[in-house]
Write a sequence for this structure.
């Protein structure tokens, strides 16, 4: 009689232990999946913010280039949004868009470093970058840029010069 009680207690402990282990493994799997989803959401938010900042920076730079074509001064083009958000930007950016944006900002750096660079050269490289990344932002990320265009920025800069 004692042995049967011990045996049933032992079986109960084994079954209970296996159920506890299974529950623990399931909870760990669910928690890991939830944390992965949270991290993916955070990365997407950072990517969207970086894309938005670069689009606005490119619009601003193109407006500056338009205004300075005949101006005696030559301001540097902004690259802060691109520089500060480069990892979240390129983490999810499609390859074709990434190459165009990279080339555009490469020539922006040439403009900033080379006094003899022509505004048209920089504009010819930044415009495709803007079109590519803005198209991606609107099409894939569903971002909107209401009331923000080059004409508005050009008008703002024209008033200042």
């Amino acid at each position: 009689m004692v042995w049967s009680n011990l045996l049933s207690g032992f079986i109960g402990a084994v079954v209970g232990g296996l159920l506890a282990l299974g529950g623990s493994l399931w909870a760990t799997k669910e928690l890991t999946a939830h944390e992965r989803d949270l991290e993916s959401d955070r990365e997407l938010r950072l990517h969207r913010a970086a894309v938005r900042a670069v689009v606005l920076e490119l619009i601003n730079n193109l407006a500056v280039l338009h205004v300075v074509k005949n101006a005696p001064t030559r301001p540097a083009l902004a690259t802060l949004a691109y520089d500060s958000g480069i990892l979240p930007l390129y983490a999810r950016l499609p390859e074709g868009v990434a190459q165009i944006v990279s080339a555009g900002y490469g020539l922006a750096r040439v403009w900033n470093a080379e006094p003899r660079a022509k505004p048209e050269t920089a504009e010819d490289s930044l415009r495709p970058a803007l079109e590519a990344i803005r198209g991606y932002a609107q099409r894939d990320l569903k971002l909107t840029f209401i009331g923000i265009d080059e004409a508005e920025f050009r008008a703002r800069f024209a008033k200042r010069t």
In short: The radius of gyration is 28 Å. Helices lie at 2-68, 80-84, 86-92, 95-113, 119-139, 150-160.
